[in-house]
Amino acid sequence: TAALAALLRTGAARAEDKPAPTTKESILTFFKHLKSSLAQSSVQGQRKRARGAGSVAAVRGAGQYSELADPNETSLKGDNRAKRSKQALAEDAEFEKAVSLILAGENAEGVKALGAFKLKHPKSRSLAAVNVAIEKAQILDAEKAEAPPSGPP
User: 65-77: per-residue pLDDT in tens?
Assistant: First the structure.
């Protein structure tokens, strides 16, 4: 029990030794995670697109011909889903580009790009995340303005 108590005390001491992240560090971590999730969603979309071909089993029995629809005629099945998927990938790429600007230290350009995204895609599924990103970028700008210049006196 003494060894366990010693381990618990050292673990608590280690946690106390680590300084809490600054506001800037936590906001930059937020943007790094956001960019990572946007990149993963676009990669997953490409994988889904590549796996689009599926197989269908046929059942022997009565003929499947109907006078209402010719089975040999091409149909538009899946086109709307593919269109929405392509649109979502394009939105994610645009959103990721704006986040990359902020991570590169170009906050003003990043906020402009996020504002343009909101105007261009008012019904986007990412609109809430865009609003949060704009708020965090503005906090980052405010903190940068308050920080004293670092350099020789």
Answer: 555 555 565 655 5
Considering only the C-alpha atoms of the chain, give the largest distance between any 2 of them, rounded to a whole number of Å.
Answer: 90
CB atoms within 10 A of CB 92: 20
Number of Cα atoms under 13 Å in the Cβ half of residue 63: 5
Spell out the SS3 assignment of 24-39.
Answer: HHHHHHHHHHHHHHHH
- Which structure tokens are listed for 47? 């994988």
Integer angstrom CA distances of residue 15 from 5, 19, 24, 30, 52: 16, 8, 21, 22, 48
Of residues 60 and 135, more confidently modeled = 135
Neighbouring CB atoms inside 10 A of 5's CB total 9
